[in-house]
Design brief:
Elements: E1 20-23, E2 28-31, E3 39-43, E4 52-55, E5 64-68, E6 77-80, E7 88-92, E8 101-104
Antiparallel strand pairs: 1-2, 3-4, 5-6, 7-8
Length: 126
């Protein structure tokens, strides 16, 4: 007995499922890449191309905070902590998700006030 031979299956763009794309180089449907928890989708998939995943930016601990949280399709945005200029002190300390808040150092009024405690980088004059 002879076994009938099957014609090779031809694939086209319409034969791919919703979680696949049609690779025009191989003429085959391929599974879409899924972005991991440390990635975001930089470019969406099309009917003929896979989605592009990129690693999420990591904010530098101690010098940056996360100004904008990442989403499935956008990277996080980091910003450098504000440096309090002369004449100001740190009124509120920075965190991983918030900038420091600076405030003006109080000035003693001439001849009516005196300084009990000098200002520091993190405290006002008393």
């Amino acid at each position: 007995p002879t076994t009938p031979t099957r014609a090779p299956t031809t694939h086209n763009i319409n034969s791919c499922s919703s979680d696949q794309f049609f690779n025009t180089a191989t003429n085959l449907c391929q599974d879409l890449t899924y972005c991991g928890p440390d990635q975001y989708q930089a470019l969406p998939a099309t009917s003929t191309s896979d989605r592009v995943c990129m690693l999420l930016t990591l904010c530098t601990q101690g010098s940056q905070y996360e100004r904008v949280q990442p989403t499935a399709t956008s990277d996080r945005v980091c910003s450098s902590y504000t440096v309090c200029p002369g004449g100001q002190y740190q009124a509120i300390a920075p965190t991983a998700i918030s900038d420091r808040v600076c405030a003006a150092i109080l000035e003693c009024r001439n001849n009516t006030e005196y300084q009990l405690a000098a200002p520091t980088a993190t405290s006002n004059r008393v």
